[in-house]
Amino acid sequence: MGRPPCCDKIGVKKGPWTPEEDIILVSYIQEHGTGNWRAVPTNTGLLRCSKSCRLRWTNYLRPGIKRGNFTDHEEKMIIHLQALLGNRWAAIASYLPQRTDNDIKNYWNTHLKKKLKKRQGDDEPNQEGRSVSQSIPKGQWERRLQTDIHMAKQALCEALSLDKWNTSSPDSKPFPINLSETKPIQTSTYASSTENIARLLQNWTKKSPNSSQDGSSESTTQNSFNNRSIGTSSSPSDGTISAATPEGFDSFIGFNSSNSDVSQSEGELKFTAANFTPETGILQEESKTNLDIQMPLTLLENWLFDDASAEGPEGYLMDMSLGETADLF
DNA sequence: AACTGGTCCAACCGCTGCTTG
DNA sequence: CCAAGCAGCGGTTGGACCAGT
């Protein structure tokens, strides 16, 4: 007979999250992963509903999130993807792994909508208009189906050849994203909030029994979390975070700093790839997500930014869905 | 300095499809 | 098979912030 009720709405806290709450949530997910959101409020003592916890994690605390201004590159991708997929922000976000669907949605509503409106007002033929008009002949459901088939195919390809990514050639990047060609811009609000959290995390990591380096595989989630964050940015002797800075925090909670740092060297990229395998624990899901979109994004960029291409996205997707999926299935 | 209007974004709301017992 | 609950998604909102007057 169903499951026991989720979180009753009595005594559930709402509104902005405090750094303390963030730490509690992060530390819990470090130990237990993101599998059971329902258990999070009860096990952590957070007066939040499970939904709120999940949202906080996926939109804010999750590793690998890039914050701040959108680059031209990202902007173009969003515009094209929105024209292709509609308001399927989650699907669009899957092509921009560093951005959350909420972020993209907000950016679309606050910036791009107006921008496009303005451009259309200028009555000037542009790429966005072209993409939209090209996508119209196809039914929405059909485009969705094509995209979903395409994504499923990519996921399968990834699953079958994960090792290739880890031992890829020096030219290959851990993430498809040439987003890294663009400038990193951090918002001051997030920076300040991460500073607070990082400061609090210092205490937490000191107390945490999980920062041990015994190499035990009892919890891969813990190990990966610690290895990638504390292990690279802290003193091994005391286990504390070395820098109470936004960068320090980003690196604590994941791979963000190396991932979003556009000035990173190829060597750093390789380092990221080497450490960023699906076997690395709690962030496995995130890493998979990132890996999964590697090929599609690279291909996507071909048509997104190839002005000479007259075929457009539909041609690509049609090929993928009608041609290659036949082989797949 | 105070007010006003606009912008931005984190968080909430409500719906839907899937999962579970 | 069914009902209840969960997780995820897209739409909306509230409040902080900023620029202009």
UniProtKB/TrEMBL annotation:
Chain segments carrying region Disordered: 116-140, 206-243
Domain HTH myb-type: where? 9-65, 66-116
Q: Which UniProt keywords apply?
A: DNA-binding, Nucleus, Repeat
Q: Does the record bear DNA-binding in its keywords?
A: yes
Keyword Nucleus tagged: yes
Entry's localization field: Nucleus
Q: Cite the Myb-like domain residue spans from the record.
A: 9-61, 62-112
* Primary location recorded for the protein, binned into one broad class: nucleus
Feature: compositional bias, Polar residues: 128-137
**InterPro entries for the chain:** Homeodomain-like_sf, Myb_dom, Myb_TF_plants, SANT/Myb
GO annotation (BP), single: response to auxin
The Gene Ontology terms for molecular function here are: DNA binding
Gene Ontology CC, one term: nucleus
Q: Entry's Pfam families?
A: Myb_DNA-binding
Cite the SUPFAM superfamilies for this sequence: Homeodomain-like (SSF46689)
- Kindly give the PANTHER family that the UniProt entry links to this protein: MYB FAMILY TRANSCRIPTION FACTOR (PTHR10641), TRANSCRIPTION FACTOR MYB30 (PTHR10641:SF1063)
Q: What does this protein do?
A: Transcription factor.
The protein depicted here goes by the name Uncharacterized protein
